[in-house]
Design brief:
The protein has 137 residues and is mostly helical. 80% of the residues lie in helices and 0% in strands. The protein has one domain. Keywords: Membrane, Signal, Transmembrane, Transmembrane helix.
Amino acid sequence: MITSGALLAAFALQFVFAAVGAFTQPAEDGSYLLHSFTGMAVIPALCLLTTLFAALARAPGRVIGLTLLPLGLVLLQVLLAALANAFTDPSGASTPLGLTIGGLHAVNGIVAVHVVAGVLREALKPSPQSSMAGAGA
């Protein structure tokens, strides 16, 4: 439960860090450093820990699979960001295709937050063992 809550907080901070990068003036290569580090190091580590703890807790297979989904969405995020940056004109300016792919990067982030919220909801559900123990008392 703690790691899934930390994962949700990290995803929420991603939006803050993206805004910091977008509004930093003058824009530099390091403007998105917090966003990049959190997305490429912190969130994947928390995804793996969440999956590990779900497996150790003997969560149902569906729940363990759900804990892996955010990691897949993070990999998609990296691909979308790379593609958005690759589709520029010869002068390096954004193109409509690059901007559209960049928009999909944002939408995928929103989807990831909803998936992680679902993981947290599953973590907060009482386990069947604890329900059965309470019924026998």
